[in-house]
UniProtKB/TrEMBL annotation:
Gene: dapF
A single cellular component GO annotation: cytosol
NCBIfam families for this protein: DapF (TIGR00652)
Biological role: Catalyzes the stereoinversion of LL-2,6-diaminopimelate (L,L-DAP) to meso-diaminopimelate (meso-DAP), a precursor of L-lysine and an essential component of the bacterial peptidoglycan.
Stated name of the protein: Diaminopimelate epimerase
Family: Belongs to the diaminopimelate epimerase family.
HAMAP family with a match to the protein in the record: DAP_epimerase
Any one GO molecular-function label of the UniProt entry: diaminopimelate epimerase activity
Catalytic site: 73 (proton donor), 73, 201 (proton acceptor)
Subunit structure: Homodimer.
Positions with a binding annotation for substrate: 11, 64, 74-75, 174, 191-192, 202-203
Subcellular location: Cytoplasm
Pathway connected to this protein: Amino-acid biosynthesis; L-lysine biosynthesis via DAP pathway; DL-2,6-diaminopimelate from LL-2,6-diaminopimelate: step 1/1
């Protein structure tokens, strides 16, 4: 089996393509294992669309490192788009089907086989709750492809992981704290499936940006900085949230 390892602003993924769509949750756990596998936050498998009439280029299967299947992954969507373009599975402007819906993506012309800037347009955000009280803090719940809790905090340096784990179990959602830094936003995320804080989460940054935007705390186009320290570019258009940043192909190998 030939696989590629990708890094997308702190999230890493194992990616391959095949003609066969099947359950791969055991394979995901094996490949994503940090000590005995390739090591990654998730596994992405590209498979053909069901018919020529489908208005997208291909489908994907996405698994977290614990083998659970997720509806969507923002950073994964950008890594997936670059992989598809680099392997001539799709043009630079493409769309593909996830469990959450169809994702549009564009690989910039300056990109090469090793990586580059990729923009993806996430599924339309849905705000689910706006006033969840927990430990004296206000949390928002919304879906940006997968469910997220967001708290606008005063101190991004302190992320209470025990509290995040409790909220993740109670609400079955990823948990984010966001800090307004001038015109931009800093975000930290506890992710389901990984069951810990990760260096970055695309849909988490999108959820945090969208809440800050709807609360009038930031404009409609800003920079967002995850724990990895990278710079992501978030915006809103008439349909959804746009999300742009660099992805890197770390290596391709036979396993």
């Amino acid at each position: 089996m030939i696989v590629s390892k990708y890094s997308a602003n702190g999230n890493d993924f194992v990616i391959f393509h095949t003609f066969v769509k099947k359950d791969r949750h055991f394979l995901a756990k094996k490949l994503c294992h940090r000590q005995e596998g390739v090591g990654a936050d998730g596994l992405i498998v590209l498979v053909p669309k069901d018919s020529k009439e489908c208005e997208y280029d291909f489908e994907w299967q996405f698994y977290n490192s614990d083998g659970s299947e997720a509806e969507m992954c923002g950073n994964g969507s950008r890594a997936c788009a670059h992989y598809a373009f680099a392997n001539e599975l799709a043009p630079s402007k493409m769309s593909f089907l996830t469990v959450a819906g169809v994702i549009n993506a564009e690989v910039e012309a300056s990109s090469d086989a090793k990586g580059g800037m990729v923009l993806s347009e996430l599924t339309p955000p849905q705000i689910l709750e706006t006033n969840i009280e927990h430990n004296g803090k206000r949390w928002f719940k919304l879906n940006t492809g997968v469910p997220h809790l967001v708290h606008i905090c005063d101190n991004i340096e302190f992320f209470d992981i025990a509290e995040a784990r409790e909220l993740r179990q109670k609400h079955n959602a990823n948990v984010n704290i966001a800090f307004v830094d001038g015109k931009n936003l800093r975000v930290r995320t506890y992710e389901r499936g990984v069951e810990d804080e990760t260096l970055a989460c695309g849909t988490g940054m999108a959820a945090s940006f969208y809440i800050a935007y709807k609360e009038g705390l930031v404009s409609n186009n800003i920079e967002v900085y995850p724990k990895s320290g990278d710079t992501l570019y978030l915006g809103v258009n008439e349909r959804s949230i746009t999300f742009k940043g660099e992805v890197k192909r770390v290596f391709t190998a036979e396993v």
